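wait is this the right file?? whatever heres the structure
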């Protein structure tokens, strides 16, 4: 028994000594804070990596440590805040700490202070006593981007196939450069973000990549207007309100319609990000060149003289290139004339307002143009049993013209009174054409 005692006593003494040495060599909370400050101040990334303990499953590499050391040396206020947090935690764990007060402890109680900070001090209790470690906080980063976007984090592609969101979990304090890009019909849109994972309280970060680009609204008063982008036809037609995005600066837009009498185009619009307007009218002008204008003017002027000839000669055959409904109205008028009651007169001229032309589709699907026209006439109504009445009239009318594609000419399809002629802007447009016969 005595011999066993003599054997055990030295072993116990040695074990106690080893334990004492191990415990005495364990860093104190204040020592961790000082070493952290020194490593950052000296840009000793390797020293910081050796000092910091990273949990299994957490991601924090030398590249991350390098970014954070550079960040803290650039922004001293962030470094001072982090050191203040560590000092507050050291005070909580070490009652002998000399750092009894700092602004962190004025804001948080000592226990709450241990739950903040990108770097924090952890205490573990074991059979050998308390042990302390400087650790990195785990952050979760969520990246949101549209489907089909290509996203990279520090140049490494992130798999976002068939997803609009990707979460990076358990990453330590770091700075990420995130880029997203997406291809569209009208160009490629890119967005870059720098994400700093160093918030002392919020460990969940979400960023959204804006890959929608600059959007503009285009419209056309003519349905099925084709859209030209930089002179090339796109797959899109323009409805009354169509959003186009993304649009690069310098892109040109134009509306195109294939009329039965030829191709009409709107003015070319050049997109500039500095432009105040984000809405553009791309309605093509149905009277797209001088030849079309001359043809229409000729058809209207011929109608002015022909209808006067038909009425004064009582011969409906004088009225050409008109619809059956227009011809019918003049037949009914001519039937009221005889040798004693008739009309004398002449057509003096017209005014045609080409600045107020409206393109329409008739109920039968024909393409028509609606145009304000003023007819200047001098007439005398001769009566058998009453005095003749002479008048010089300006008749304000709205003509509807349809195009006869087979014969390549215009038909007067409808003739109505213009009840808006009394308004002050009547025949005041820049494209009013006057003809005197």
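ok assuming it is, sequence goes like this
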């Amino acid at each position: 028994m005595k011999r066993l005692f003599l054997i055990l006593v030295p072993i116990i003494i040695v074990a106690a000594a080893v334990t004492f040495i191990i415990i005495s060599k364990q860093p104190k909370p204040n020592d961790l804070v000082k070493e952290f400050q020194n490593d950052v101040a000296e840009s000793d990334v390797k020293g910081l990596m050796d000092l910091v303990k990273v949990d299994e499953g957490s991601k924090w590499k030398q590249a991350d440590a390098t970014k954070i050391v550079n960040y803290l040396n650039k922004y001293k206020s962030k470094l001072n805040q982090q050191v203040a947090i560590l000092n507050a935690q050291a005070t909580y764990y070490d009652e002998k700490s000399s750092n009894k007060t700092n602004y962190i402890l004025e804001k948080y109680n000592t226990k709450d202070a241990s739950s903040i900070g990108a770097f924090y001090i952890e205490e573990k209790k074991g059979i050998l006593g308390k042990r302390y470690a400087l650790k990195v906080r785990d952050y979760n980063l969520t990246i949101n981007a549209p489907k089909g976007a290509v996203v990279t984090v520090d140049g490494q592609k992130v798999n976002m196939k068939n997803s609009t969101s990707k979460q990076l979990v358990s990453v330590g304090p770091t700075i990420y450069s995130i880029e997203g890009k997406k291809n569209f019909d009208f160009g490629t849109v890119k967005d870059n973000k720098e994400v700093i994972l160093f918030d002392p309280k919020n460990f969940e970060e979400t960023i959204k990549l804006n890959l929608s680009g600059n959007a503009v609204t285009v419209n056309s008063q003519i349905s099925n207007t084709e859209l030209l982008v930089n002179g090339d036809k796109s797959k899109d037609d323009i409805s009354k309100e169509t959003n186009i995005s993304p649009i690069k600066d310098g892109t040109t837009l134009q509306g195109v319609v294939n009329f039965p009498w030829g191709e009409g185009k709107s003015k070319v619009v050049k997109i500039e990000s500095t432009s105040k307007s984000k809405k553009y009218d791309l309605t093509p002008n149905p009277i797209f060149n001088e030849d079309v204008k001359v043809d229409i003017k000729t058809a209207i002027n011929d109608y002015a003289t022909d209808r006067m000839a038909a009425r004064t000669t009582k011969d409906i055959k004088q009225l050409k290139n008109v619809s059956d409904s227009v011809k019918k109205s003049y037949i009914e008028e001519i039937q009221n004339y005889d040798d004693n009651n008739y009309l004398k007169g002449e057509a003096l001229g017209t005014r045609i307002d080409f600045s107020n032309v409206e393109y329409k589709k008739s109920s039968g699907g024909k393409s028509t143009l609606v145009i304000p026209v003023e007819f200047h006439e001098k007439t005398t109504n001769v009566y058998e049993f009453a005095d003749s009445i002479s008048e010089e009239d300006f008749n304000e009318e709205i003509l509807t013209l349809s195009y006869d594609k087979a014969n390549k000419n215009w038909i007067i399809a409808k003739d109505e009174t213009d009840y808006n002629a009394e308004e002050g802007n009547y025949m005041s447009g820049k494209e009013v054409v006057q003809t005197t016969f």
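The chain has a mean pLDDT of 88. so i think its the right one actually
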